[in-house]
Write a structure and sequence with these properties.
- By secondary structure, the chain is α+β, with helices and mostly antiparallel strands.
- The protein has a single domain, classed as Nucleoside Triphosphate Pyrophosphohydrolase, CATH 3.90.79.10.
- Helices cover 26% and strands 28% of the residues.
- The chain has a four-stranded mixed beta sheet. Strands 3-2-7 form a three-stranded antiparallel beta sheet.
- The longest helix is centred in the middle third of the chain and has 13 residues.
């Protein structure tokens, strides 16, 4: 569990957080995190993320959280997907789609009780017990996910490194620029 005292507050007193919904370029499958027993909405599936450390950008925050919670060590291309503010929870949360070269087996910590790689039909089939906010995000980014999965076949491990160096840009319509 992170010590919340070290996390930055936004100027409007909102706590900042960010996360990633990873997609494997080789399979097109999405990696979900099953939230641990000490977490809000325990047992439900979500992306990988958490609170921002002092001075972190959303990209740094999301990447750090994904690496910490899954022990993933490879390259990742982040695509901004969704911003959410919750005045009730005093929280702003930015979600990224993270394209990685291939599936891997996460090594989880106490913030997770499991994980699963899912196809789009499994994600949108109504049988996965999602964190309520993640369910909302997934419904709003469904077309973007489909486009990224379709285009991710163009990204293999060799050219993914090159893409990171050259800053992959995905246009609003989903085309790789």
């Amino acid at each position: 569990m992170h010590d919340r005292r070290r996390f930055a507050q936004a100027p409007d007193d909102f706590t900042k957080a960010a996360g990633i919904i990873p997609i494997a370029a080789d399979s097109g499958r999405i990696l979900l995190n099953q939230r641990g027993s000490m977490m809000d909405e325990a047992g439900k599936y979500a992306g990988w993320g958490g609170y921002s450390a002092l001075g972190e950008s959303s990209v740094q925050n999301a990447t750090r959280e994904f690496y910490e919670e899954s022990l993933y060590q490879g390259p990742i291309v982040l695509i901004p997907a969704h911003n959410h503010s919750s005045p009730i929870k005093n929280l702003t949360y930015e979600t990224f789609i993270g394209v990685i070269p291939s599936e891997f087996e996460p090594i989880i910590d106490q913030e997770s009780m499991g994980f699963r790689w899912c196809t789009m039909s499994e994600v949108y089939g109504g049988k996965i017990n999602f964190h309520p906010e993640v369910q909302k995000v997934l419904s709003e980014v469904q077309e973007l996910l489909r486009t990224v999965i379709k285009k991710s076949g163009l990204l293999n491990e060799e050219n993914l490194y090159g893409v990171i160096c050259h800053k992959l840009v995905i246009d609003v319509d989903g085309s790789i620029v």
